[in-house]
Design a protein that fits this description.
single chain, alpha+beta, Cytochrome Bc1 Complex, Chain A, domain 1, seven-stranded mixed β-sheet, about 45% helix, about 20% strand
């Protein structure tokens, strides 16, 4: 950004060199990364990382995207991305997908790609490099992607239907609005004309040569980079890469990318767009600036800009949040961010959500805060707070430097390839961050903040539901002029300096029993009946995870109005404070801390979930204590949230998504009113009572006897024990366990039920949901066979429904198996399509399942399933979250999801899958919910 760069350079003698920092210093890259260029011109980045044992990530990136398309090629960069999976020199047809699935690499999860306006990337992640042949084969995939994609006529035609369905599925209100706003975002430039997905007309009508021409012109070596990170020898991987890519030659003709210029405009632009399916009115103000030149992107000055604009965004967001949490706030919420939007443009993006017909009030309030920042700057307390938080996050990243997974490295190398951004070592990054933070002064911050807000290259964007009254362009400009001409008071803030917890009020308990626990854990029994399970790990140096579970939940609540009130907690919780602190005061009180604890309620449980840095364990436990012993319920806080919902609900209930959710809940539960309690509606809001919410909440934690807390992570046991005794051991208990859960649990209806309905929608499409359910014995065999059925179905549907029929972008298959309150399962099949294709696809959906029941199961599909789950099991077991889950399942529900898992997977056979399928799907329970467009 030129103006910020000039500001920093002008202040350099005063705020840069005076502090001993050379802002023009090139930031050294991490020497652990092998960087080179093949003879063809392809750049590569190779790094060893042993955190994921015997795993590697392989990426290829193209410095090419939708803005390189000609008018007759709109959408073809993205189309080409699809074609890379449909046949290549060494992997004809679906050979690439078939091979990768055979080694446990699952399409959509470990095998994927992404296209943007400026870049395209393909990825093969978490590859099990257990054999040399696997590495050779995956490098061969990269080789083919680099220059040997088939692009056969018939394959192109087959893919048209898939991409049309992707277009249909994604053509929601947000994308329609964005398409209309693009000229305001990118005036006079190619960016305004390239939305990546293209149009349905082009997708169906482009010629084969249109696609091949784009491929030949842009998919060339000098536009490509390989990124390979994993548990291997770098020298060996580099040698293999060079050998595999030896036949790729440098292109003689290298068409340069056009330099894109976005037209400057001296006065604010205005865009007003309405759409009947928008759920809220959003008022955005953008300020476009030129980025720092690419040649400076690897220097300390770029790091300083990133830090300074990040600090400014954080302070401004704090102000917006504080306003939004006040009763009668001028907007529902607001926020901002500073980032590189596209290559020639950085933006300060500020957005506020307005109540219906209050667009002007929201615009005036948001713009006032921007000018308050511009004219009066920030206070020292705000500045010191965000600096402290930034340094705390940087320190945590440094502490976890040896615990990064393969994927954590990739983005830095890709950014270096496209933008010249540096990829320093963790040590260099941390030391530079500390030095730069220490050098930044409040005066410097305020000088930069002042330069961010201006008329030149600014725009106001209004996106609103069609039913909302919106101002004219003239009225919007009048609002801006009015705010500019007004007196704006300097920002003043209040800080609550009370201690987080009244220590005198706490009567600590004791650990009265210590046992060796499951999975090499330790079990503490507290004097108040709370069970504490601890497992120290070395997965992450700076992470502790805590989960507390108490049986009970919403199924213990009989009264429907009480149920509505406690269900509303999930919306209210973000505004709720703790103890003597409002939510705003609490956020300030936690400055410099990495600790959180939240409460949530499910049908069968009340839970306290938290995480922290090891040094902040006491803060996390204090927050957990307050969540149970001193929750804060203020009517003004509830009024803020209910008023927000009263404004949004009239728009939400008009959308196709809401209609589908409503009809689904109604259908699968037989119109049970309890199932409708958590769907937003005016009737729901009328029933919400602060008094009843507080009563239901407190009742869940009134007796903690039998509650189980699980701690996993890098903690000191001797340090944790007195904190647990103090904050968990002091919670109320009568030493009698509460009822597990109530009789008011909601179950699916039985039998065959179909609900086919029509909804008005802007982009006609069908949404189909089929749910198979029934009783099933809870044991490893049945659960893992059901999981195999889910996996096999998903693979089959990709082939039969997506690829062969071209009927949908994808079919999702989800599985739930429950032990309590009854042993049952539910398998859901979900997809979107065009109405003309529905009658063709529904029989295919059923036939694939019927074939499994009939035992028509290919041996390779079982092998693919086993390879995938065994690989994923090993990957997940180096996570604190995974082990926390294992321990919770054992100590709360008595389920061992670890010990015999691999043995159970290995025992899966065609016969065992068929037997489970017969037991599960012969019960005759099938619910279909089909949403059709209004004709």
């Amino acid at each position: 950004m030129k103006k910020i760069l000039l500001t920093l350079l002008a202040l350099l003698p005063l705020f840069g060199l005076a502090q001993g920092i050379d802002l023009m210093q090139v930031i050294p890259n991490d020497t652990e990364v092998r960087v080179g260029t093949l003879e063809s011109g392809i750049k590569y980045y190779i790094r060893k990382n042993s955190k994921d044992p015997k795993r590697a990530n392989f990426h290829i990136m193209y410095d090419v995207g939708a803005v390189q398309e000609l008018d007759n090629q709109q959408g073809l960069a993205h189309f080409l991305e699809h074609m890379a999976f449909n046949g290549s020199k060494n992997f004809p047809g679906k050979g690439m997908d078939d091979y990768l699935q055979s080694i446990g690499v699952h399409f959509g999860e470990n095998l994927n790609a992404m296209t943007g306006q400026e870049m395209t990337t393909y990825m093969i992640t978490n590859v099990p490099i257990t054999r040399e042949g696997i590495v050779d084969s995956v490098l061969l995939v990269l080789h083919d992607w680099a220059g040997f994609i088939d692009l056969k006529d018939e394959d192109i035609d087959d893919e048209r239907g898939v991409i049309c369905e992707e277009w249909r599925q994604g053509n929601n209100a947000q994308r329609r609005v964005l398409d209309k706003q693009m000229e305001t975002f990118f005036p006079g430039s190619i960016y305004a004309k390239r939305n990546v997905i293209g149009t349905e007309e082009v997708i169906l009508s482009f010629t084969y040569e249109d696609l091949r021409s784009f491929y030949r012109k842009w998919y060339r070596p000098d536009m490509q980079a390989f990124v390979i990170v994993g548990d291997f020898d770098v020298d060996e991987m580099e040698a293999k890469l060079k050998k595999t890519m030896a036949d790729i030659k440098e292109f003689e003709v290298k068409t340069p990318k056009d330099v894109v210029v976005i037209t400057d405009k001296e006065t604010p632009s205005v865009s007003i767009v309405t759409d009947p399916e928008l759920k809220s009115t959003d008022v955005s103000i953008i300020f476009r600036h030129k980025p720092i030149a690419k040649k400076y992107a690897d220097r300390v000055i770029a790091l300083k800009q990133d830090i300074m604009t990040g600090l400014i965004s954080s302070m401004l967001n704090e102000r917006f949040t504080e306003i939004a949490r006040k009763e009668n706030a001028p907007f529902l919420d607001a926020g901002c961010g500073y980032f590189n939007f596209v290559e020639p443009a950085d933006v300060l993006y500020v957005s506020g959500s307005a109540r219906n017909d209050e667009t002007v009030q929201t615009l005036e309030a948001v713009y006032t805060e921007l000018l308050r920042m511009q004219r009066g700057g920030f206070t020292n307390s705000e500045f010191e707070r965000v600096k402290t938080n930034h340094l705390t996050r940087a320190e945590r990243a440094y502490n976890n430097r040896n615990d990064r997974r393969n994927g954590d490295f990739v983005d830095d190398y890709m950014s270096n390839f496209t933008s010249n951004s540096p990829f320093p070592s963790a040590e260099t990054q941390f030391e530079l961050t500390k030095e730069v933070l220490a050098s930044i002064t409040l005066d410097e911050i305020n000088a930069v903040a002042k330069s961010l807000v201006r008329d030149k290259n600014s725009a106001v964007l209004v996106a609103a539901p069609s039913s909302t009254q919106v101002p004219s362009e003239t009225q919007i400009i009048e609002v801006l002029d009015k705010v500019k001409g007004s007196e704006i008071a300097v920002f003043v803030e209040e800080v609550n300096n009370q201690p987080l917890v009244d220590q005198a009020a706490i009567k600590a308990g004791k650990v009265i029993k210590v046992d060796n626990g499951k999975f090499e854990s330790t079990l503490w029994t507290l004097s108040n009946g709370v069970n504490v399970v601890i497992k120290k790990t070395d997965f992450k140096a700076d992470e502790v995870i805590m989960n507390g579970v108490k049986l009970g939940g919403t199924s213990t609540i009989e009264n429907l109005d009480d149920l509505v009130s406690i269900e509303f907690w999930k919306y209210f919780s973000g505004n709720a404070g703790l103890g003597n602190f409002s939510s705003t005061d609490l956020r300030k009180a936690l400055t410099g801390k990495i600790a959180n604890a939240s409460a949530s309620f499910g049908p069968l449980t009340a839970t306290i979930n938290g995480s922290c840095s090891p040094k902040d364990m006491e803060t996390m436990l204090q927050l957990a204590y307050l969540r149970m012993a001193a929750p804060r319920f203020e009517q003004t806080d509830l009024n803020v949230v209910t008023n927000q919902w009263r404004s949004m609900i009239p728009n939400i209930i008009q959308t196709p998504d809401y209609a589908f959710s409503y009809q689904t809940n109604k259908t699968i539960t037989g119109n049970n009113p309890r199932a409708m309690a958590n769907l937003p509606s005016m009737e729901m809001l009328d029933k919400v009572s602060l008094e009843r919410m507080a009563a239901m909440y407190k009742a869940q934690f009134a007796n903690v006897s039998g509650m189980t807390f699980v701690f996993t992570g890098n903690f000191d046991e001797d340090a944790l024990r007195p904190l647990v005794e103090k904050y968990l051991g002091s919670l109320p208990s009568d030493m009698k366990e509460s009822p597990k859960f109530g009789k008011y649990h909601i179950h699916n209806v039985e039998g065959k039920v179909t609900n086919e309905f029509r909804t008005r929608m802007e982009t006609p499409k069908v949404t189909s949901l089929s749910i198979y359910s029934g009783n099933i014995e809870w044991n490893d065999t049945e659960r893992i066979n059901l999981a195999a059925i889910r996996h096999i179905l998903e693979v089959r549907y990709t082939k039969s429904v997506r690829e062969e029929a071209g009927g949908t972008y994808g079919v999702q298959v989800q599985l739930e198996v429950s032990k309590e309150p009854k042993q049952e399962f539910g398998l859901a099949v979900y997809f979107n399509t065009d109405e003309s294709k529905l009658n063709e696809l529904m029989p295919i959906i059923q036939k694939e399942l019927d074939d499994i029941v009939a035992g028509k199961i290919a041996d390779e599909s079982i092998t693919i399933y086993k390879e995938f789950v065994v690989k994923k099991f090993a990957e997940s077991n180096i996570s604190n979250g995974t082990w926390n889950s294992y321990l919770r399942e054992w100590y709360v529900w008595g389920n061992d999801n670890y010990s015999n898992y691999l043995k159970a997977v290995e025992s899966v056979t065609k016969e065992s899958i068929q037997a489970t399928a017969k037991r599960a799907f012969s019960q005759g329970n099938l619910i279909k919910v089909i949403q059709l467009p209004q004709q």
